[in-house]
Amino acid sequence: MEGSFFFTRTATVTTLGPTMVTSMVTTTLSLSAYRLPAWKRGMDLVLGGMLLILSSPLFVLCWAAVRLTSAGPALHWSERVGKDNRLFRMPKFRTMRVNTPQVATHLLQQPGRYLTPIGGLLRRTSLDELPQLVSVWSGDLSLVGPRPALFNQNDLVALRTHQGVHRLVPGITGWAQVNGRDELEIPLKVRFDAEYMAAQSLPLDLKIIALTLWRVLKAEGVQH
Count of H helices and E strands in the chain? Predict the structure, then answer.
């Protein structure tokens, strides 16, 4: 999607608090001139490094638990679509049995039967995502951004490319995740991704991280 393409996006930003406060931000972007904010890589390195250090005991425990409760490696590496639609390998703690079909979970017939003994727990608590902090350091991921599509999710990739979202570095969490996570249909998910691209800022990223932690504690938005 090269060339001088313009679009206008109205972004809805919801703040934390006892009541829901919503502000509307309308931004027109030239996608051909789009550049990632300078502060974003610095936040990924500093905050991501701190989270990696603080979570290292959990990392070791999860690694051991996966190896002890099911046959196969502790980590599962999947082909994902990154910035500018480049493929990269993304790690997660393995929550599914070896030889599970490489498709989105909601496309599996009876996905529960593919889960490892602790797979459901790792998914509900999002502990399976911990290894992705290493991908943040390598630059394949950001802490906040659209969740990376699987290599074969052509409908999601096509919609994101049409909206220009493919220019963003994908993230461990994102605006779509705090607005529904697994519950969202693809068109709505891409709409949230585009809203984030138009309104992204350091305060918004920090807010999304805080909302993510809150949703993880409540185990909201996880279907399997």
Answer: 7, 7
How far, in Å, are 96, 115, 169, 176 from residue 143 at the CA level?
Answer: 24, 26, 9, 14
- In a domain, residue 20? The reply is no
Residue with tokens 């585009």: 194
Give the whole-angstrom CA distance, residue 102 versus residue 181. 19
DSSP 8-state class, residue 147: P
Residues 6+ apart with CB under 8 A from 190: 156, 159, 160, 163, 165
65 lies in which domain range? 37-218
pLDDT in tens, 162-204: 999 999 999 999 999 999 876 789 999 999 999 999 999 999 9
| Position 3 in a domain | no
The amino acid at 132: Q
Instruction: Name the DSSP class of 208.
Output: H
Do the strands 171-173 and 142-144 form a parallel or antiparallel pair, or are they unpaired?
Answer: parallel
> Is 19 contained in some domain?
no
